[in-house]
Amino acid sequence: MSIAANALPAPVRGALDRLHEAGFEAWIVGGCVRDLLLGRVPTDYDITTSARPEQTKQVFAQERVVETGIRHGTVTVLLEGMPLEITTYRVDGSYSDARHPDRVTFTTSLQEDTARRDFTINAMAYAPGWGLRDGFGGQGDLSRRLIRAVGDPQRRFQEDALRVLRAVRFAAVLDFALEEETETAARQWAGRLREVSAERVFQELSKLLCGPGAGRVLRDYPDILGQVIPELLPMVGFEHRNRHHCYDVYTHTVVAVDHVPPRLPLRLAMLLHDVGKPETFSMGEDGQGHFYGHARRSEALTRQILTRLRAPKKLLEEVTALVRWHDVPLSEDPRQIRRWLNRLGPGRFLDLLEIQRGDAAGQAPAYCTRIDQANRLENLAREILAQAPCLTVRDLAVDGRDLLALGYRGPAIGAGLQAMLEQVLEGVLPNEKGPLLQWLREKDAKKAE
Ligand code: ATP
Ligand code: MG
User: Fold this and answer.
1) For ligand 1, what atom is nearest to the CA of residue 163?
2) Does position 289 have pLDDT exceeding 90, yes or no?
3) Are 425 and 342 in contact (CB under 8 A)?
4) pLDDT digits (tens, 9 = 90+) for 298-328
5) Residue 259: DSSP 8-state
6) Is the model's pTM score more than 0.85?
7) Ligand nearest to the CA of residue 147, numbered in listed order
């Protein structure tokens, strides 16, 4: 396991070189080193240096420098269009609120700087010519595929409860396991996740859900996930008592999450699609468990949960729509498909089919035929879309001006356009100006008689 000097982007090398030439120590550190060792493309590069923030600013005096976190020793330098966070070696003070260190102290020791970092695989530093600094066995844990806290896990999770969620986030994203003591401590301190800000929680949760190990992590750590979404806990072990299902509600959910593509709206919708089931359970006279109205209840809970987690508004709308419709029976009649394309928009309709496939994959094998149905619906929808269909009022071959010219005014214009769209969606009328206007005139003439 090693990093080739030419693996670093030119601006990163340039920044390290300039700090070195000015007489400072400087390294890339943390996630980017981990990712380079794994042969993954780092999302961003962090630099750690012995230079104090004012000294870093001097070294890059000719560049655009933003004091992003000067209190924590961080300045951001824009080099050849690439933003680089450069942070002075530091040790963190005590954490009285399980979130933010009360104060940070600069240090001259790289070893001390890496010791404050969360996991061994995130506590390595590298610089061309100087090589890799791995003070806590990060390389060994990378090859064993383990998430291990730096130092005493109990103390590290007590200092900052977000690390509990970060531990399972890295386990999901990298498909790693938690080292035993780290796991025990993570479970023990999970309760303090409730003190962590919603934004930080949501950021980690989002990455977790899109990782290749998401399903496994959800299955193994409902106790930890249940601290950030307590609504999940009643699902654990809740039996469907219904022949369509071979899993309890939580296990069904976990399997379904793993069966949708790793896009955040889909993964969130799958996680929450049945969250209303425990509250809506009833036992039928046929001896089968039923969950009447669960989609609406799940939708309401999803809205509550995502609002509490401060999810972006657009994402919230996407996810709640998918949860609301996840269970709706869809017909293969092209008119019905056009109606759904009109109601949800093409992108969201195709997402709904992903959700229905994921949902079906988590049911008893005999009911997985719904997967074939979703596949057929997708083909039909794509055929319809390939013909550049008329799906909204905007796509109509007529517009408001045509109706104005015919003497329509005010709300009658919108109503007229909508009525014509209905005819086109039903396949009764072609989307052509002449026939549309003629139909409208005749309809309104009849009404006036
Ligand atoms: P990603 O690839 O998702 O960005 P990352 O490891 O870079 O993962 P960041 O959140 O960007 O994660 O943090 C950068 C580095 O800062 C980490 O690798 C780790 O060394 C350190 N770090 C971040 N958050 C914490 C924390 N809560 N406690 C201790 N160290 C942390
Ligand atoms: Mg990062």
Assistant:
1) 27
2) yes
3) yes
4) 999 999 999 999 999 999 999 999 999 999 9
5) T
6) yes
7) 1
